[in-house]
Each structure stands twice: as C-alpha cells, then as structure tokens.
Specification:
single chain, alpha/beta, seven-stranded parallel sheet, four-stranded mixed sheet, 16 helices, 11 strands, globular
Length: 384
Amino acid sequence: MKRKIAILGSTGSIGTQALEVIEEHPDMFEVYVLTAHHQVDLLIRQARRFMPEIVVIANERHYPRLKEALADLPIKVWGGADALAQVVQMKPIDMVLTALVGYAGLRPTIAALEAGKAIALANKETLVVAGELITTLAKEKNAPILPVDSEHSAIFQCLSGTWNNSVEKIWLTASGGPFRTKTPDELATVTKEQALRHPNWNMGAKVTIDSASMMNKGFEMIEARWLFDLPPEQIEIVVHPQSIVHSMVQFEDGAVLAQLGLPDMKLPIAYALSYPKRLKTVAPRLDFRQYASLTFEEPDMGRFRNLAYAFEAIRKGGNMPCILNAANEVAVAAFLEDRAGFLQMSDVIAQTMEKATFVARPTYDDYVETDAEARRIAAEFLNR
C-alpha cells in the first residue's frame, strides 16, 4: 500500500526534492497534502502535477488566487496558519514531512504528533525551540520522528541495528561554510551575495545564511541532543570541508561508524520517507579515488560566535534555545534585507539572550510568549 505523505513547505528546497523522490517511486508514495507560505505559482504547478487531496496556502492573501487557479480540479483548497495545524491530522495521512523554515514549523508538528503521525523532520527549529515538549509528546503518542537533515540521518543510519549499544559521543560534521578561512576583519565586510554561495550544498536562503554563520550547526547540535537523547557534552562538532562524511557515532568500545556519500539531500529524504527500506536511486555514486584526502578540523567558536551561543543556550536549557532561535530569525532577515552586517547578527543574538525573560520549565504558551518577546528585543536592538 502506498504511503500517503503530507509535505509542509512543498515549494522550498527540501519540499521540491521530496517531490522528486516521490515522483521516482510512484508505486510507494502518494502526495496527500501540499502546503506553502507564499510561493503560490509553484504550489499551483505542484498541485496540478501531483493531484493531492488538499493544498494549503498559509499566507491567506494568496488564497483567492490559489482557489481560482485550481477550481477545475477536485482538490480542496485551504488557507491560513490554522489550516496547517488542522490538515496534518487528517486520518488518511501516514507521514508528515515538515519542511517549513523556522518557528513556523512548531505548531503543525505538535498537531501531527498529537494525531500520532510519523514525522519526517526537516524543520530543525522545532526541536531547537521545544525539544523536550516535542520528544515527550512523540513518546506519549508512539509517533516516530525520522530525521531528514543529512547529519542526523547519518547518525540515525549508523545507529540502526545498534540501539542496545551505549554511545560514547556523536560527531556532527560541518562544511565550515564559505567563510571558514576568513579573518574577523574580512567577516565584517561579508555581503549577503557572498554568504548565499555555499561551497557544497544547495539550500534555501535562511538555512544558507545560518550555515555561513555556523548557527545551522549549533541548531543541529541542539536537534541531536533531543533526537538521540544525549547531553551536549557527548556531541562534538568537527569541520569537514569536503562534506563527504555526513556524521559519525563513537561507541563505548572506541569503534566509530560513519555514513559517507556525495552532498545530496535526496538520499536522507528518501531514507526518512521509506524507512526501514532503502530505495534504489540513480544518484551519482561516491568514487573514493577522486578524493585523495578527507580533512577534519576544530571549529573556531571565537570567529563564529553563533555556535558558542547555541552550546550556551542548550546548557542553560528552559526557553533559552527558543530565545536563540527567535533572535537568529530576526537577525538573518535583517541581514538578507541589508539592515544588518554579518557580524552584527551575533550581536543581536547575544543581546537578546541576555535581556529576554528566562523560563526554566516552559509550557507551549511560554514558548509562544518567549518567541514574541525575543523577536521584539532583537528588532529593537536592530532599530537603534
């Protein structure tokens, strides 16, 4: 029987690649829901191609246009943020791929888990903001969370079949981004055009900027803490510029397992959608003869302060990672709009973490209030 998939964020980088995977395996998957925030033209094209049961446009301004464009098809058209949380609970859905960017992924992920849906998680901010709440809910509902990030998928693959063995540590690899060797003076003059040119991966704008500042790796560390139930002391970050080793697991006997491959997000997407089965693909294969050396180095948390702030946030716990995420989203948006410099993004995050209200044991409502307060503080700092 085909797995019915809901894709939240179908017009983004992960969403479009997921649709390619589904199209390559029509005997295994069926698109049941497609959602987008504002890319209505692409959503219309996707709906006509994949004929889902329901499409949702979160930005209600685009609802009339979407409704009219699909009026000749038997597709239900919904609009608004509430619709995202409602649609993921539809009974026929087998799996929800959360490919939304940022805090917006939290509420629909909670709704999907409450309905007991399997989650293919590409929205790392969900676990950054509310990791304890999400993982507790997943256990209560017996709803699996399957990682889509290449690094977490690599760890998951390495652990498959070895769950009874104690993990000593995990190694999260980082490409180092486009500015790995730049000096602080050079970083001060970085432009958004430079920051958007990632050397290895093709990602959306926000994730690409996070990668350039190494905040993305900080988020992945927090995500790993919750996905694999490990304290930050057992999570190491190592810079690996070639992006061939996607991450590693070190066991108590000293053995290290690694997952390797060419940089290609379709592999972890396919693994999450089809788990425990591996799908045959025509993707390019890794030829070790083309790589004379694979190198690894320590990340510089002095130059890339965001990574240090991420460790600080998860060690403090409570709502501090939520504060970190909100401040970062505001800072990245300002950088992309030429209202902040590259290094100023870290200043915004530091100031917000210092001034926002700390809550040691947050509820969902606390996270909502924290997100709003942190965004306000970050915006005020930028407007000085």
